[in-house]
UniProtKB/TrEMBL annotation, chain A:
<keyword id="KW-0472">Membrane</keyword>
<feature type="transmembrane region" description="Helical">
    <location>
        <begin position="95"/>
        <end position="116"/>
    </location>
</feature>
<dbReference type="GO" id="GO:0055085">
    <property type="term" value="P:transmembrane transport"/>
</dbReference>
<dbReference type="Pfam" id="PF00528">
    <property type="entry name" value="BPD_transp_1"/>
</dbReference>
<feature type="domain" description="ABC transmembrane type-1">
    <location>
        <begin position="61"/>
        <end position="265"/>
    </location>
</feature>
<feature type="transmembrane region" description="Helical">
    <location>
        <begin position="196"/>
        <end position="218"/>
    </location>
</feature>
<dbReference type="InterPro" id="IPR035906">
    <property type="entry name" value="MetI-like_sf"/>
</dbReference>
<keyword id="KW-1133">Transmembrane helix</keyword>
<feature type="transmembrane region" description="Helical">
    <location>
        <begin position="65"/>
        <end position="83"/>
    </location>
</feature>
UniProtKB/TrEMBL annotation, chain B:
<keyword id="KW-0472">Membrane</keyword>
<keyword id="KW-0813">Transport</keyword>
<feature type="transmembrane region" description="Helical">
    <location>
        <begin position="12"/>
        <end position="33"/>
    </location>
</feature>
<feature type="transmembrane region" description="Helical">
    <location>
        <begin position="131"/>
        <end position="148"/>
    </location>
</feature>
<dbReference type="InterPro" id="IPR051789">
    <property type="entry name" value="Bact_Polyamine_Transport"/>
</dbReference>
<keyword id="KW-1003">Cell membrane</keyword>
<dbReference type="InterPro" id="IPR035906">
    <property type="entry name" value="MetI-like_sf"/>
</dbReference>
<feature type="transmembrane region" description="Helical">
    <location>
        <begin position="107"/>
        <end position="125"/>
    </location>
</feature>
<dbReference type="InterPro" id="IPR000515">
    <property type="entry name" value="MetI-like"/>
</dbReference>
């Protein structure tokens, strides 16, 4: 069977080149200051110092985290009941609804975000209907509301699918046992279903928070040119100002913040479980 | 009574979910047939934006680039990804672990980080941004998905089968092609499908690695959306149709084949 082993070799070489080297380049650029060639490269923490000491950049970072956290919370609050409702349907109906949720994720995110631009306009369809009720027009486009809406719209399917998977994997006999032992519906949900579905929520958080922090076209399209998130700063540094060192430092800082928050989320998830086993 | 209420509530919730997901998509399709420039008032049916789209050379070029890149990236990444997955399944555990970890990087990393990394990589190599860099980038982020979707199929594969084929005198190529590949075909097909749609829909990474007038549909929508331009609706509708048809074909063909198979047996 060793004949086949070599088939992985070309990809390993390719992978080292095109996946690993770019990551190393980001680190290299982040810790160096612009020089004209290899000889004039200077290692320094200047880029990070500049980023973390600038109040404008710090407010952008705060806003990005704030938007991502709000988006994630909304995705959990809306996504959980939706996933729960689907998980409790008949087999055929489950398949139908999961397909319905999955299908839009296959369609271009940019196109789907663009669609909201028309809907949210002051003369758009939402304000048209609000007009019938005698409300508005309410300005929605180019607001935080529009940005969060765009993110929830794009990322909530990931949350729903993760929670749904956790719910359907759950052993139904636990619920029977709970009700045999005298638990009512609310109790068995809170003490059986919810704890068992937490891993789904956790992986859902990962899949929503990560793209939400780094997104730059949703704020651009729905927040307008003035609405700057951390992704937009990186875009500008690389494609407009051309300061790759500073841009790399910001990207690296963002990647580290994301990794730390993922780590904390996972920790929060595994700790209670470990404690419960110890009881 | 309580149960009825809950069921009603869940039906209502799912109904609203469907509206939330599909209203924007239907909105864009509807307004692609609008006779006026307005994105908010439908003033009559017309095909003028489609005419405009098909006569606009930048739009048609972007469609062509998107399709060509997606097809090439799908073919390359499906072949390389499948061979790699098979190779890895026979490799030492340590090697497999390392490759799987590195392989996860493009999937786990924010797209923008992958994008700027590739941008600097290509520039360090002195490769001009354009078609080649776009294709290489797409192959780069597609292969991990193919490997991820083929690997589980290989795990459930009986390792003795390939050995048996070799013992019976098959060349390794024959064993690969006639024994292993047919059994992991569903994984290969779903890997190819993911690769195609990932490539077809990609915006962020493409945006950073392309240049010299080589644009895909997403980049064009992004740059054009700053001004009102209803041809974007027509272009978006085209994208929606292409993806829906692809998904439909890939999902329907196996069902039809199965039915045919049942009839003949």
């Amino acid at each position: 069977m060793k004949q086949f082993r070599n088939m992985a070799l070309p990809y390993i070489v390719w992978m080292a080149a095109i996946i690993v080297v770019p990551m190393l380049l980001i680190i290299l650029y982040a810790f160096t200051v612009k020089g004209n060639d290899v000889a004039t490269i200077r290692f320094s923490l200047e880029n990070f110092a500049r980023f973390f000491s600038d109040t404008v950049f710090m407010s952008v970072l705060k806003r990005s985290l704030y938007i991502a956290i709000i988006t994630t919370i909304i995705c959990i609050l809306l996504g959980y009941p939706i996933a729960y409702a689907i998980a409790n349907r008949s087999e055929k109906s489950k398949l139908f609804w999961i397909l319905l949720i999955t299908l839009p994720t296959w369609i271009n995110m940019l196109v789907r975000t663009y669609a909201w631009m028309g809907i949210l306009q002051d003369e758009g369809v939402i304000n048209y209907f609000l007009g019938f009720l005698g409300i508005g027009p309410i300005t929605m486009i180019h607001t935080t509301f529009a940005v969060v809406l765009g993110m929830v719209y794009n990322f909530i399917p990931f949350m729903i699918l993760q929670i749904y998977t956790a719910l359907t994997k759950m052993d139904r006999s636990y619920l029977e046992a709970a009700s045999d032992l005298g638990a009512n519906a609310v109790q068995s949900f809170l003490r059986v279903t919810l704890p068992l579905s937490i891993p789904g929520v956790i992986s859902g958080i990962t899949l929503v928070f990560l793209p939400a922090v780094s997104s730059f076209f949703i704020p651009k399209l729905l927040g307008g040119g003035q609405y700057v998130l951390i992704g937009n700063v990186i875009e500008t540094e690389f494609l407009t100002s051309g300061d790759w060192n500073f841009g790399s430092a910001i990207s690296l800082a963002m990647a580290v913040i994301i990794m730390v928050s993922m780590y904390i989320t996972k920790k929060v998830d595994t700790d209670p479980a470990a404690n419960r086993k110890g009881e | 009574m309580e149960k009825k209420k809950i069921r009603l509530f869940s039906k209502l919730l799912l109904g609203l979910t469907a509206i939330f997901f599909y209203a924007p998509i239907l909105y864009i399709i509807l307004f692609s047939f609008n006779s006026s420039r307005s994105l908010t008032k439908f003033e009559g049916f017309s095909l003028r934006w489609y005419e405009k789209m098909f006569s606009d050379s930048t739009m048609m070029e972007a469609v062509a680039y998107t399709v060509i890149i997606a097809v090439l990236a799908t073919i390359i990444s499906t072949i390389v990804g499948t061979l790699t997955a098979i190779g890895l399944s026979k490799s030492r555990k340590l090697m497999r672990g390392i490759v799987e970890q590195v392989n996860n990087l493009p999937i786990m990393n924010p797209e923008i980080v992958t994008g700027i990394g590739l941008l600097m990589f290509f520039s360090a190599l002195g490769v001009k941004k354009g078609f080649l860099t776009l294709l290489l980038a797409h192959v780069m982020f597609c292969i991990p998905y193919v490997i991820l979707s083929v690997t589980p199929k290989l795990r459930s594969l009986d390792p003795n089968l390939a050995d048996a084929a070799l013992d019976l005198g098959a060349t390794p190529m024959q064993a690969l092609w006639k024994v292993i590949v047919p059994q992991i075909r569903p994984g290969i097909i779903s890997g190819a499908l993911i690769a195609f749609t990932m490539s077809f829909d990609d915006f962020v990474i493409s945006y950073f690695v392309t240049g010299n007038g080589v644009n895909n549909i997403s980049i064009l929508v992004y740059t054009m959306s700053k001004r009102v331009n209803p041809s974007i609706n027509a272009l978006s509708t085209l994208v929606i149709i292409i993806i829906t048809v692809t998904l439909f074909i890939v999902n329907i063909i196996p069902i039809l084949k199965e039915k045919k198979g049942r009839k003949t047996t």
